[in-house]
Write a structure and sequence with these properties.
The complex is a heterodimer of chains A (427) and B (113).
Chain A lengths: L11 H4 L8 E2 L1 H4 L1 H12 L4 E5 L8 E7 L4 E7 L5 E5 L20 E3 L2 E3 L6 E3 L4 E3 L18 E7 L2 E5 L8 H10 L11 E9 L3 H9 L4 H4 L6 H10 L5 E5 L2 E7 L13 H6 L31 E8 L3 E6 L3 E11 L2 E10 L5 H32 L6 E2 L6 H25 L1
Antiparallel strand pairs in A: 1-19, 2-11, 3-4, 3-6, 4-5, 5-10, 7-8, 8-9, 10-11, 12-18, 13-14, 14-15, 15-16, 16-17, 17-18
Helix pairs in contact in A: 3-10, 5-9, 5-10
Chain B lengths: L15 H7 L4 H9 L3 H11 L3 H9 L8 H23 L13 E4 L4
Helix pairs in contact in B: 2-5, 3-5
Classes of the chains: A alpha+beta (427), B mainly alpha (113).
The structure holds FE2/S2 (inorganic) cluster and fe (ii) ion.
Fe (ii) ion binds next to helix 6 and helix 9 of chain A.
Chain lengths: 427, 113
């Protein structure tokens, strides 16, 4: 018996008939050729979130981002006018990587007045203009005016900085995000300015990790050891159901019901959680946000669940915004580095604590997050290894895994589209 | 206890024997310490510190969390360590989360206290 009503078609999956209900091929998670197509068809065309405006607090603040799948490294900077800009991280002289520290392959951040190449000391203003060239007179016909840094399309929504490495993006950022994601525009992300950031190198295809965090079917089972036996047995008996799934274009969202910590009997909850009034879902006491009730924002708790748990927005292609009912949020990024590896990043954002009790509650939430994440990450490597045997070529998905189905369909569509276009170009 | 070499506020001098080992300022250090500790060591720390958690919260809540004096900051870091050892003590009976042998997630940025 379903606890929550499903769409009239009988399931979330059938509500979107283009998804089908059949098995999916695992080839898109293991094929190096397919990964190369994904890079062209998806990562070199999409708007990619690279961070938040709070990471660039002052004029001259910058950070670099390695976009391996999009085939470049970018510099994101707040220029002297306060505008946020993005450039390919390459010097116009002989192509040295412009901004890096000690290790050319590692990302860096800081603050500066100009960018200076380590090789021959060409210097660039923060708006990209080429400034000085040592021994300039030795060059031939050097027109400094056209030798500025190569710009990358860059735009900001709700404090999130996006870049697009396409020569001419087919959509503006607003068109790209669409009404479903834009419905979060008024959420007070900027008030949750205490950031905790995690990074992991994971030996699996990027989509497998996205899948692990876009279905909660696995939670009672894989994470059963994270809760007292009595609680685990209870949730295993009921299984997991979400009250709300929605797909819009390439983006998707799942919203869940929640549990109130204080409603849980003594033996269903860990002693530390009871003492600190916190856990995986975050602090039990709602953070102080400037708005009365964030659920008045259209994109927040879209199904009106009570109690509400979280909304997990999967923004195409590799970016997740997860809003918790307690007034905090986290982001995930999955940066592919090959067919069977990616860099996983997560940032947790809280309102700065007013006192030690609030800070301790946040600490328990973020430590819990990491312990769950470790189980997820480890499992993915196990999945990847076995998919690569090709002993099994297809897998099945249930209705609570509808978002996984949508991701793989959207990836396939994008690759098909790209193939058609490029074949067309050759003919 | 309560001498000049004390790391913790004098009201928490009973926890002083654990201070050297567990007053660790970063998540990286606390996680590494948990992974390299025996269950007996963590059990002993947990049994001493958990009953004092309520008082530690009350003591720290009287202070400005963004400007803690050194001994209070140590106490805060010790309570962070208590959180990280609570996982093996309260559930797993082993330092590492089950089924996560090969995985590593690094916390590279923490909001300053
Ligand atoms: S490559 Fe940058 S100055 Fe020569
Ligand atoms: Fe999980």
């Amino acid at each position: 018996m379903a606890r929550y009503p499903k769409p009239a078609e009988g399931s979330w999956t059938e509500h979107y008939p283009e998804l089908g209900t059949g098995p999916l091929s695992s080839e898109d998670s293991i094929s190096p050729e397919f990964y190369e197509l994904e890079r062209e068809a998806i990562f070199k065309r999409a708007w990619l979130n690279v961070g938040r405006v709070e990471e660039l607090p002052r004029k001259g603040s910058f950070f670099t981002k390695e976009l391996v799948a999009a085939g470049t490294s970018v510099i994101i900077v707040r220029d002297m006018k306060g505008e946020i800009r993005a450039f390919h991280n390459i010097c116009r002289h002989r192509g040295n990587k412009l901004v890096w520290k000690d290790f050319p392959g590692e990302e860096t951040r800081g603050s500066c007045r100009q960018f200076v190449c380590k090789y021959h000391m060409w210097s660039y203003d923060l708006d990209g203009a080429l400034n000085t060239v040592p021994q300039e007179e030795e060059f031939f016909d050097l027109d400094k005016a056209i030798m500025g840094l190569l710009p990358v399309h860059c735009d900001v929504w709700a404090g999130f900085i996006f870049v697009n490495v396409a020569t001419e993006p087919s959509q503006t950022l607003t068109e790209y995000l669409g009404p479903m994601v834009l419905a979060l525009s008024d959420y007070p992300f900027h008030e949750q300015s205490d950031r905790y950031a995690f990074r992991a190198t994971v030996g699996s295809n990027w989509k497998l990790f996205m899948d692990a965090f876009q279905e909660f079917y696995h939670a009672p089972y894989l994470h059963g050891g994270q809760t007292p036996t009595k609680f685990t047995n209870m949730i295993r008996q009921f299984g997991f159901e979400a009250p709300f799934y929605k797909l819009e274009g390439p983006h998707r969202v799942v919203s869940t019901g929640g549990v109130r910590g204080e409603d849980q009997p003594e033996d269903m909850i860990k002693p530390i959680e009871r003492k600190l009034r916190s856990g995986l879902f975050g602090p039990w006491d709602h953070a102080d946000l400037s708005i009365e009730n964030e659920q008045d924002i259209a994109g927040v708790n879209p199904s009106g669940a009570n109690p509400w748990g979280l909304d997990s927005y999967q923004v195409w292609p590799n970016f997740v915004i997860l809003i918790w009912a307690g007034g905090w949020y986290l982001t995930y990024h999955y940066w592919p580095t090959s067919a069977n590896s990616h860099v996983f990043e997560s940032s947790l954002y809280f309102v700065p604590p007013k006192n030690a009790s609030e800070r301790l509650a946040q600490e328990l939430a973020l430590v819990s997050f990491k312990e769950y994440g470790l189980q997820d990450a480890n499992t993915l490597e196990a999945t990847q290894k076995m998919l690569e045997t090709r002993v099994m070529s297809e897998y099945v998905l249930n209705d609570q895994e509808v978002l996984c189905r949508h991701l793989h369909k959207e990836v396939a569509n994008a690759v098909e589209e790209y193939k058609k276009e490029t074949q067309g170009a050759i003919v | 206890m309560g001498t000049d070499s004390a790391l913790l506020p004098s009201a928490f001098s009973d926890l002083e024997p654990y201070a050297q080992a567990w007053c660790l300022p970063t998540e990286n250090q606390r996680f590494a310490k948990r992974m390299s500790s025996s269950m007996d060591e963590m059990e002993s720390f947990y049994n001493a510190a958990f009953p004092r958690l309520e008082e530690a919260k009350a003591y720290l809540d009287e202070l400005d969390v963004h400007d803690l004096p050194g001994d209070a900051e140590n106490l805060m870091h010790m309570m962070f360590s208590l959180i990280i050892v609570s996982f093996p003590i309260e559930l797993w009976r082993q330092p590492a989360v089950p089924d996560a042998g090969a995985a590593e997630i690094v916390c590279w940025l923490e909001a300053p206290l």
